[in-house]
Every structure is written in C-alpha cells, then in structure tokens.
Amino acid sequence: MTEDIKNTVKEYILQEFLPGEDPNELTDTTPLITGGVLDSIGTVKLVMFIEERFNVTLQAHETDPDYLDTIESINNLILSKKS
Amino acid sequence: METPRVLHQLFAAAATRYPDNTAVVEPGLGSISYAELAVLSDRLRDRLHGMGVRPGDRVGIYLRKSVDAVATIYGILKVGAAYVPVDPGAPPARNAYIMHNCEVKAVVIENRFVDKFRAEYEQLGRLPSLFTLDGTGGGLPFAHALDDADKEEPVTQIASAASLERDLAYILYTSGSTGKPKGVMLSHENAVSFVDWCSEVFQPQSTDRFSSHAPFHFDLSILDLHVSLKHGATLVIIAEEVGKDPQRLAPLIAEQRISIWYSAPSILALLAQYGNLNRHDYSALRLLLFAGEVFPVKHLRALHSLVPKPRYFNLYGPTETNVCTFYEVPTPIPEERTTPFPIGETCSHLSSKVVDENGREVTIGEEGELCISGPGVMQGYWALPDQTAQGFTLDEGGTQWYKTGDIVVETGDGNYTYMGRRDRMVKRRGYRVELGEIEAGLYRHPLIAEAAVIALPDEEGVKIKAFLSCRQEKHPSLIELKSFCSQHLPLYMIPDIFSWHEALPKTSTDKIDYQRLKEMA
Questions:
Q1: Cβ pair B228, B210 in contact under 8 A
Q2: Could you read off the pLDDT tens digit of each residue along chain B, which spans 521 residues?
Q3: How far apart are CA B2 and CA B405, in angstroms?
Q4: Rounded Cα gap, residues A39 and A41, in angstroms
C-alpha cells in the first residue's frame, strides 16, 4: 500500500513538474514546496491529483507545506485519510 | 492655508468620522476598529520617534500581512517617515539589500526573521534599530510589543508629522535588470492623487468591504489600504497562503461579504477553474478590479459566467505611476472573442501620449511607447540618478513624462491596447520580472558557466525558460537547481523550464544570441 502510494505520487510529480529529471534524484524526503519544485499552481494541481487518484478529500489546512512538502508526508496524509 | 492632503491625514479624518467602524479584519485572527487602529499607530509613531526616527527617514516593514502590519504602516507615516515593505517570504539577502540600499533608520520585524536578517545585514553595514514583534495577527502581538517597550522605557507623545504632499510616503522595490531590485519612490501626492481618482470612479462607501489580496510590497495594495481606510470601509486581509489557494479563497470571499475585489488576474483565473464558485454566494460583490498582467479572455469569460453581478474593470499601470489607464469590460463576453481587452483610457488625474523611438507622437492606430505625466508619477528610483533620468523625457513645454516601456496602440475610441514591451521585463502573476535579475541569480550557482533566460508566451501568460551551460560534465539536477533558485530568488522568478547546453549560441560580437535561443525554444 505505502509503496504504491509513494510510487504513484512520485511518478506524477516527475512527469508533471520535473520532466527529464533522473528519478533517483527525487527521494521520499525531497522538499517539494519549500524546495521550489511546486509553485502555488503546482500545489493546486497536486491536491486535485491526490483527491481524484486516491479518492480522498483534503481539508483546507492540509494543503500547507506541513502536509505536502515531501512524498513521505503526502503518503502519511493519504494513509491517515484511508484508515 | 489648506491642510496638505497626505495619507495619514486621510486616515485620521476617517478615524474621527467613523471611530467604531471596523477598519481591518484578519479572518480567524481578529479585527480592529478605526479608533483602535488610530491609537495603535499613534503609539508606534511615538515609539519610532523615541528610537530616533525623524520626518524624511525611511522605516522598513518585515512582517507578515496583518492588522499589525497595517498599524505599522500608519505609525511610520505619522512620524513623517516613508515605509519600505519587503516580502517576508523572499530571500533574507534580498530584503537586507533593500533595507540597506535605502538606509532605513529602523525596521519593524517579526522575531522569527531577525537572525537571518541580522546575519545578512551585518555583511552590508551596521544594523538599524529593530522594533520586534513576537508574531502578527489581529494587532495583539503589536500591542504587546508596544506595552513591553513602554514598560522598559516610556516615550513622549508627539503630534503626527505635518508632512507635505511632496514628501515620500513609501518606497516599493521592483525587479531590476542589473540583478538588484530598484526602489520606486512615491510621494504622498502620488498616492493621494490616485486614491482620489479611485474615490471618483468607484464611489467607495463606508459599508464597503475591500479585499486585501496583494502583498504590501506590491503596488496594488495602495488601492486596498488607502482607499478603504479613507472612506471608513473595512479591509479584509487575505493571508498569503489562502490567497493562492482557490479552494480556500472561494468560500472566504463569500463569507467575508467582500464588495470590492482587487487582484492580479492569475488568481482570478485559478478561482474560475478550481474554486467551485457556483457553490458560493457572491451577491455582496459589486466591483471586480484586476491589474498587473493580461487576463486571458477564456478565463475572464468563465469567471464572468460564474460571477455575473459585479462590474469588471481592467486597471493598468506600472509601479512608477500606479494605475494610469482603466477599462470597464463590457459583459457578457461573446464566445468568439479571443483577443485580450484594451487597457483603456487615461485616468483623469494623469495625461498620456504615445511616442516613437525619436520621442515624436505617433498618430492613432500606430504603435508607440506609452508616456505618462501628472501628479501620480513617481519621484524617481532611490539612489539611481542615471536610471531615473533615463526613465523620463522632457517635452518642449517643460513637462516631465515617464516612459513606461510598454508598447501600445491608441484606437479611434480613445482606448489603448497593450502590444508588448520594449525591453526584457515580463509580468508573472502580476509581478514585474526583469529576466536579467533571474540570470544574475542563476550566475550565483558555482557550477553555472553561462545563463540566459527568455519568456515564452502561453495561454496562461508566460513561461520562463533558462538556457544553461555547466562548468563540469555532470550538471546539477533539476531538483537541486530549483532548490538553489528558491534560496536566491523570489518564488515567482524561478524558471519553469531549464535546459542544459555545452555552450550557449553567440552573436558575432560574442554576446549571447537571444534571437537564436527563441528559435531553439
């Protein structure tokens, strides 16, 4: 489950925001928002992708870097929604 | 003699007339009345005076947008100084440069920013006096900071400064082509002439609720702050993180019953696409104003179909003049229209003309550079006499005209249509971006040998593409580059696309060949 979520999110981020990047460079702890990978529009797109792909609803405050800044934290957020 | 019309005097008059009206709301964090805001800003005036600030000085603002920051602005104006707001989210080195560049006498700053700011500033010079707040939100941290300071050392109450209309009110720093931001100096007269024009055209009422979407270092904030607080209206502060999230912003505009909205088009386009606007009640909204960049017609049409009630205005103008032309968008917008709307006709407090490369006025229908004169035009760039001189042209009658750098065409009906720029400046999410400043930022990376940046127009505005060459065979990863940029440039300046090359194409004079780069893109 966990690996599936992480891989799906990773693939989406690579394809959408880091075209051409070596997949090994994007780790579970790479900062996405604070590291300049996702801008504000990118964050909106990622939230929509997560909601649709994993069939979950994010609360307004869950779109902050606290929840979405790394693949690890995104995974935890989705798991907490699923449980 | 008539009292000079200066910003803090307009606010003081409103505070006397509407003491109990709510002046500023920070949703979820509190609000403040006109009387309370007047007292808080008086107390900062006295405190700053005690710290040695005198009329004619500059005072920096390094705070999150908040009630506390609004009180700070009026406190600085009341002591007779000019306020210099910076983006607390921008790299500390950039902010330290700005404060040092215009020699601020003091800085009002949140504690959490102090260490990094101090470290950067001390590389440039001796740190100015700091007035520190533990945080911001609803004005309470600000009041506490004043209480604490009073306990330690009481200050004498002084009268608000009798500023003159020609005195500086604020300095807004914008992107500079040489890689350093430049300070646009604006006087009370510049601001008040614009505020009065807004009063005439938009007829604000004390019952209006204004959005404060733009950050205070951005010139859109002049309308939000000083027009609403002149008229006894309420200013609704929209936190930065909410302001860029359409799913949180859409309900907030409805719940707060905002009646006058003003922002760059980019967030409005996001609201139209992702805000689920049909679920909310926008019956309070009477004016929808946008400025800062071209609004793609597709998104504007979608927005109007979802929010049909308000009047829509396209406002145009660089920071150097604030709004100088305006256009009311005729609605509904026909399906077949794809070309952007005009920037409109000249505001009544200004004059305009369109000139060719030799400074001669062109005829209607011909392209030329838009020039503006009148009481709204800036005093110049801080400590940049050459750039200031280059920015203006003097006509035979002795009138100074500010050259906007924008190429326009005047149509027969008196409206201007925007055609493009004559230099390397682009607009992104309403911000001015000098491509040269991005290049200067990229050159700070130790592995980057050459950097050239171009803007590519697309449906949403522009994409920024960086062409790079590397000092070694293995170049930095995309993630590393983006992370580097986020430390050295404001977020809106980070390129969308990076591409590596062995060497960049050159012209016969060995300069980077931008024409060739555009073809390659």
A1: yes
A2: 567 799 999 999 999 999 999 999 999 999 999 999 999 999 999 999 999 999 999 999 999 999 999 999 999 999 999 999 999 989 999 999 999 999 999 999 999 999 999 999 999 999 999 999 999 999 999 999 999 999 999 999 999 999 999 999 999 999 888 889 999 999 999 999 999 999 999 999 999 999 999 999 999 999 999 999 999 999 999 998 899 889 899 999 999 999 999 999 999 999 999 999 999 999 999 999 999 988 999 999 999 999 999 999 999 999 999 999 999 999 999 999 988 899 999 999 999 999 999 999 999 999 999 999 999 999 999 999 999 999 999 998 999 999 999 999 999 888 999 998 888 899 888 888 999 999 999 999 999 999 999 999 887 778 999 999 999 999 999 999 999 998 889 888 999 999 999 999 988 888 889 999 999 98
A3: 37
A4: 6
Domains and CATH numbers, chain A: 2-82 (1.10.1200.10)
For chain B, the helix, strand and coil percentages under 3-state DSSP, each to the nearest 5: 35, 25, 40
Q: Which of residues 466-485 of B touch A (CB under 8 A)?
A: 477-480, 482-483, 485
CA distance B194 to B346: 12
Same fold, B7-243 and B345-421: no
Q: Does A22 reach chain B within 8 Å, measured CB to CB? A: yes
Pick the CATH number of B345-421 from 2.40.160.10, 2.30.38.10, 3.30.420.10, 3.90.180.10: 2.30.38.10
Type of residue found at B364: I
Chain B residue closest in CA terms to A58: B247
d(CA B195, CA B349): 10
CATH homologous superfamily of B7-243: ANL, N-terminal domain (3.40.50.12780)
For residue B269, what are the CA distances in angstroms to A27, A30, B125? 32, 30, 43
| ipTM beyond cut 0.95 | no
Instruction: Give SS3 for B321.
Output: coil
Is A59 part of the contact surface with chain B (CB cutoff 8 Å)?
no
A26 touches chain B (CB under 8 A): yes
Best residue in A16, A24, A40, A50 to probe B by mutation, most B CBs within 10 Å? A40
- Apex B504 CA angle, B502 and B509, nearest 5: 135
3-state SS record for B398-448: CCEEEEEEEEEEECCCCCEEEEEECCCEEEECCEEEEHHHHHHHHCCCCCE
In CATH, the architecture of B425-520 is 2-Layer Sandwich (3.30)
Q: DSSP character for B277? A: G
Residues in B touching A31 (Cβ below 8 Å):
483
